[in-house]
Each structure stands twice: as structure tokens, then as C-alpha cells.
Amino acid sequence: MSNTIQKLLAGTSKGLLVFSKADSEWKVEKIHFLGFPVSMVFVDQRTNTWWVCLAHRHWGIKLHRSQNEGTDWEQVTTPKYPEGAMIKPGKPATLRAVWCMTDAGLDRPDELYLGTEPGGLFHSRDGGNSFALVESLWNHPSRDKDWFGAGRDHPFIHSIVIDPRDSNHIYIAVSCAGVFETLDAGQSWSPKNNGLIAAYLPNPDVEVGHDPHLLLACKANPDVLWQQNHCGIFRSVDGAANWKNVSGKDGFPDYGFALAIDHTNPDRAWVAPALSDEMRIAVDNALCICRTEDGGQSWQALREGLPQENCFDIVFRHSMAIRDNILAFGTTNGNLYLSEDYGGHWQCLSNHLARVECLTFV
Known about the structure:
Blueprint: E1 7-12, E2 15-22, E3 25-32, E4 38-44, E5 49-56, E6 60-66, E7 74-76, E8 86-88, E9 91-92, E10 97-103, E11 112-117, E12 121-124, E13 132-133, H1 135-138, H2 143-146, E14 156-162, E15 170-175, E16 178-182, E17 190-191, E18 212-217, E19 225-229, E20 232-236, E21 244-245, E22 256-261, E23 269-273, E24 289-292, E25 300-302, E26 320-323, E27 326-330, E28 336-339, E29 347-350, E30 356-361
Antiparallel strand pairs: 1-2, 1-30, 2-3, 4-5, 5-6, 6-7, 8-9, 10-11, 11-12, 12-13, 14-15, 15-16, 16-17, 18-19, 19-20, 20-21, 22-23, 23-24, 24-25, 26-27, 27-28, 28-29
């Protein structure tokens, strides 16, 4: 069992909960931003800075950071789309949501990226004090005609992957548009969707128009990427040049939002199956996590400790997290589960939270 896990941060629609482990038991240590919706949580491992985005209905989107593990919080200027930026002709772009955040690499200690709605990637060069729109992506010729919203009014960037071997090499995932890659730190971008399926479009093999729900790359082998997609589970072993559908052969698992991968073993991954876009409930009203040990050739349903009847929970895209052998996920009905053996056995940390939007380990 790992001794490195100290805290689990759970962003919910009613605040940020900090769970810590003491005497072999996980307990709530503190609640921050009580009553307010937390849409994003990110821990910059380089500095141990905690970042939180609040999605106020009245005050709009607010960014906060703490450099002392939540003892004090500082509000940071929210990114703004530049004057003249248009979602569509005649429709000015304004920030609707912050979906994800990541650091820009160990060799760029002051740089950060934010993925937002309506489809903007923002870059900070001063530790997050200010952010600028990456206009090369915003001005990509596919955005006006081929990007569209999926369950939202507008497209959004929910995944940013930095290649640990080369911080100029970045992938982003857009719902709906697909995966894009830059090899020159964002000066130019290319779609990387060969092999994906957009079953909801007249042409399912379009270059742009796909709906990845989450994109991750294995740190031990960054050429191996996984995505939980609207149309299945896909894996690439050649740096996103080609994608292969690795959904369960009997159609389970297939649809879902959340994804976790083993960063030392490129063949191991976990997904949280859901029943179709229309239903969005647990398959067979039974909660489970599915794991593969062979790159998606086969999947095992992990159910021990999880409710197996009358369950309507699903797991949102950023609501599953892993560190070493410890895996955790939170649900739309406010249930939080944790496993310390790669998902083999589950314990419930709480049945009484608000909707879980995001999880991360510290």
C-alpha cells in the first residue's frame, strides 16, 4: 500500500471537501467554499498549489488558489476572451465554464493551461496571475464549421495532456470536435481523430466532429493514449495517429464519461459504465467500475462493495482519480467510493455529499 497518499480533494456542487487518512480511516478534514458549486480542482504538483474554480450562478466563474493547502485562499483574475472573439458570427465569446487545468511541464515552472467553454484554451506565463487565449487554436479553420456543443450550448475543452518528454507537444480534447495536437507549443494544431466513430453524424468518419469525454496519456509511455468517448472506449499506441475501439466485445463497457489509467502500466485502465446518452444511469441499475489489464482486449466488472440494485448513479468525467494502488470515484448522487487494491474492493466514504464534479489526490 502506498504511503504517499495524504489527501483526497472532492469538488462538489456544494463545496470542496478535503478527505485525509488517519489510523487507516479516511475522514473529512475540512470543507471549503461551503454551499458553492466547485466545477474544477487541480493540484500543481510542482508547487503544491491548489486551484479551484467556482461556477456561481449569480457572480459567474471565479478562480481561487491556495499555496498552503487551503489555509488561505486567493482569488485570481478570471480569463477573458479578447474583444472581438466570436463563438459564431455575431455572437461574442464570453467565459461560460472552466473545465480543466494543467501545468505546462517541469521545464516551464511558471506556465499553466486552462480548458474552457466555449472552446477556448488559455495559457498563463506568470503562475496563473493572468491568462491569454491561445488564438492559433481558436482560429483553427475547423472551429467555426465543425465544433459544436455536446449536452452544452457550446463546445468545451475538458482535457489537456502535456507530453512529459517534450513540453512543446500537447494534446487537447474538445466536446464536440475531437482530439487536436500541437508539436510547437501551440503555434499550430492538427486534428488526431483517425479511427474514431461519430455515430451521431451522417458521416461517422469525419475528421473533426467527434466527442471524446476524457483523454489521458500514460506517463511511462506517452505514446499510449486512452479516451472514453461518446461512442465507446478508444486507445492509441502511436501517439494518437490512429485510434482503436477497445470497448467490451458484448457492448459492456462502452458508453461513459470517467476514465483512469495506470501511469506505470500502459495496458491497465478503468472506466465507469453508464447506460446510453439518453438514459445516463448505471447499467442494469448496478454500480460498477470496469478494469482492463490487457489494453482493452478484455474487461472485468469490479463490483465488491458497490450497490447492485436500485442504483441510478453515474460518474462524471473528472470524478474518478487514481494514485498508485488507490482509486476513488464520486457520483452524481453524492456517493464517494475508494479502493486501495486497484478497484478489487470498495469502501464507501460518504453517501451524503452533493453531486461530485471532480476528484484529485494530493
